[in-house]
Write a structure and sequence with these properties.
By secondary structure, this protein is an alpha+beta fold. The chain has 17 helices and 31 strands. The protein folds into six domains: 84 residues, 2-Layer Sandwich (Phosphorylase Kinase, domain 1); 186 residues, Transferase(Phosphotransferase) domain 1 (Transferase(Phosphotransferase), domain 1, Orthogonal Bundle), CATH 1.10.510.10; 62 residues, Trypsin Inhibitor V, Chain A; 63 residues, Trypsin Inhibitor V, Chain A (2-Layer Sandwich), CATH 3.30.10.20; 64 residues, 2-Layer Sandwich (Trypsin Inhibitor V, Chain A); 79 residues, Sandwich (Immunoglobulin-like). The longest helix has 32 residues.
Length: 629
């Protein structure tokens, strides 16, 4: 295919890569005079009309993403049975190859790559696009260290085939980066991409994926059920904070992961800041693991006399110093009242009134400090005290108690997709309350929460009410009209039925733009909102209208058939333009013998000759060939 030219402008030069469902070529755009990469779907995927339509739609949506860490998509098209995407050509290496060749990656480099990919994902998420197939095979690293993620247009189209198809290395590899909800076929959102990126971080830092097995289904089940080995056990020296980031990003429950890519980036920035200030953790060197030998001290009897005197003098000095220290400690103990003191009682989680009574009964005074936030201590109860419980203090010492104001600012959990009962339980567990519940029109099932305020990830005071909007189910049966132009009638019917719609009236018409048998008109535009079960009228092309050339034939009319010496001649022509008279009631004389009439027309037709009102001749004529019968 290296000499193939697509769309009259993209000249394929050489094959530069291949995945489970596509082949990538380096190409040259003849119009813009630049090199590009063209990804072409493999033949086995072309047969599925739903797949190709999804492929085209998702690729067009991804083409609107312009970000320094996303591979730009320039064009999406089809030529014959070739479906292709024209992309930015990246001069660099695939991250999966870098991991294979370099093994565990230095963590500063891994953090930098992760931040760039997270920035790209965050941008896509804000534009309502989920990648669904984040893996090292889809991440390119340029010669200057810029990370670029690709294949936004393909991820959604293949997500139902990745587990079962173990015949293609590129496709089967995706299961190693699947989120548990993808493996279950559940609801996928931004946090699913964050999970996959967490697996990529794990592999960069350890050189291995956390879950692996011979069967891809087994790997998927491991994502759902098994706990991963902490990366530091495979690669000592990973900062503890970075390990916590990976474990949070790959939590099996979506609500426990980072709510957004921006949150992940913030934590990675903090780790970099800390390591710059306090120094990076390092592996223990071999020489540091060797215990130093204990020095051998010479025995006193073996010392010279002068040395013995010096040794005894040092022993005397040590005794005097020790005595002075002990005396100082005793003086300090008497001065502070530690000798004869008792243990301070525990006042934590008591009301102030209860704390006063307990302290006075034990011989201590009490005073209030400032109020503090404490998520574990009930409001109005003692959160902490000074001195602390169990410390020794002499009678009459004043104990300062700090009263709880209840939970302080906390992160609001996500309740999207839950019903009100589940939301109430989750909010209360996090220290919040369920507020107003407002029904709204939505495609989601009736009773499912579709919006919340404050939003998931926002910071609010404990006890804050979270207002929610729930679906009233009024749009649950709403579907979108698919794009069926340029499809065969069978393909259009399949797309409509797949969207929950039915084919209505089908008409035919001529078209210069659509080949014969292809849909040339659809009753509703693509993405128009309809109700499940609605019918859609279509018009199918008969191809371009055939234009017929005008032809002429000569007919001799014999007057001998006339009954009267003088009569009126009428000649009528019928062809593709209709019926008309070329001679209408003109007087003729029988004695003239006859005449030749030239008749013009298009296509096939007939000529009728009348003398007065009597038909004397009827001929079938092919004006295009001049044949007369």
């Amino acid at each position: 295919m290296s000499s193939k030219v697509l769309a009259g402008r993209y000249e394929l030069l050489e094959k530069i890569g291949e995945g489970g469902m596509s082949v990538v070529y380096k190409a040259r755009c003849r119009i813009l005079k630049r090199f590009v990469a063209i990804k072409i779907l493999k033949p086995e995927y072309i047969k599925d009309s739903k797949f190709t339509e999804s492929f085209r739609r998702e690729a067009q949506a991804a083409a609107g993403l312009t970000h320094p860490n996303i591979v730009n998509i320039y064009d999406v098209g089809r030529e014959g049975n070739i479906y292709y995407i024209v992309m930015e050509l990246i001069e660099g290496r695939v991250l999966s190859d870098i991991i294979k060749e370099e093994g565990p990656m230095e963590y500063h480099k891994a953090i930098e790559i992760t931040k760039q990919v997270a920035s790209a994902l965050g941008f896509a998420h804000k534009n309502n696009i989920i990648h669904r197939d984040v893996k090292p095979h889809n991440i390119l690293i340029t010669g200057t260290g810029i990370a670029k993620i690709a294949d936004f247009g393909i991820a959604k189209a293949v997500n139902t085939s990745t587990i079962v198809d173990n015949s293609a290395e590129g496709v089967m590899g995706s299961v190693h980066y699947f989120s548990p909800e993808q493996a279950r076929g559940g609801y996928v959102d931004e946090r699913s991409d964050i999970y996959s990126l967490g697996i990529v971080m794990y592999e960069m830092l350890t050189g291995k994926v956390p879950f692996d097995a011979e069967n891809p289904v087994s790997v998927a089940l491991m994502h759902i059920n098994d706990e991963m080995v902490p990366p530091s056990q495979l690669a000592p020296g990973i900062p503890p904070g970075l390990e916590q980031v990976i474990l949070k990003a790959t939590d099996k429950y979506q609500e426990n992961r980072y709510a957004s890519a921006e949150e992940l980036i913030d934590d990675l920035d903090n780790i970099e800041l800390v390591t710059r200030v306090v120094g990076a953790p390092v592996g223990v060197k071999k020489e540091d693991r060797q215990k130093p030998g204990r020095e051998i001290q010479p025995r006193e009897e073996n010392l010279p006399e002068e040395s013995k005197k010096k040794s005894k003098k040092k022993l005397i000095i040590a005794i005097i110093v020790a005595a002075a220290v002990i005396a100082g400690l005793l003086i300090a103990a008497f001065a502070t009242g530690l000798l004869g003191a008792s243990k301070v009682p525990n006042l934590v989680d008591k009301t102030y009134e209860e704390a006063v009574q307990i302290a006075e009964d034990a011989g201590y005074k009490i005073t209030q400090g400032e109020k503090v936030n404490d998520p574990d201590i009930e409001k109005g109860h003692v959160a902490s005290q000074t001195p602390e419980a169990g410390e020794k203090a002499k009678q009459g010492t004043t104990i300062t108690v700090y009263i709880s104001k209840g939970p302080g600012p906390a992160t609001v959990p996500s309740v999207i997709g839950l019903d009100t009962k589940e939301a109430q339980e989750k909010l209360e567990a996090a220290g919040f309350k369920l507020g107003n519940v407002t029904p709204v029109a939505s495609k989601k099932p009736k009773g499912e929460i579709v919006k919340q305020d404050p939003g998931a990830g926002d910071t609010a005071e404990g006890g804050t009410e979270v207002n929610v909007k729930i679906s009233d189910g009024s749009r649950e049966n709403e579907v979108e009209m698919p794009f069926v132009l340029d499809k065969t009638l069978d393909e259009a019917k399949s797309l409509l039925e797949g969207a929950g719609l039915q084919v209505g009236n089908v008409e035919e018409g001529y078209s210069e733009d659509y080949t014969k048998g292809k849909v040339m008109w659809q009753q509703y535009d693509a993405h128009h909102k309809l109700q499940k079960g609605d019918t859609v009228d279509l018009k199918v092309s008969k191809g371009p209208e055939q234009k017929e050339e005008t032809g002429e034939v000569d007919l001799y009319i014999d007057y001998s058939k006339a009954e009267n010496d003088t009569f009126f001649l009428t000649v009528t022509v019928t062809d593709s333009d209709g019926t008309r008279n070329i001679i209408s009631g003109e007087q003729r004389a029988k004695s003239d013998g006859g005449e030749t009439v030239t008749v013009s027309g298009k296509g096939k037709g007939k000529v009728i000759v009348l003398f007065d009102t009597e038909e004397v001749m009827r001929k079938s004529v092919d004006f295009s060939t001049g044949a007369v019968n």
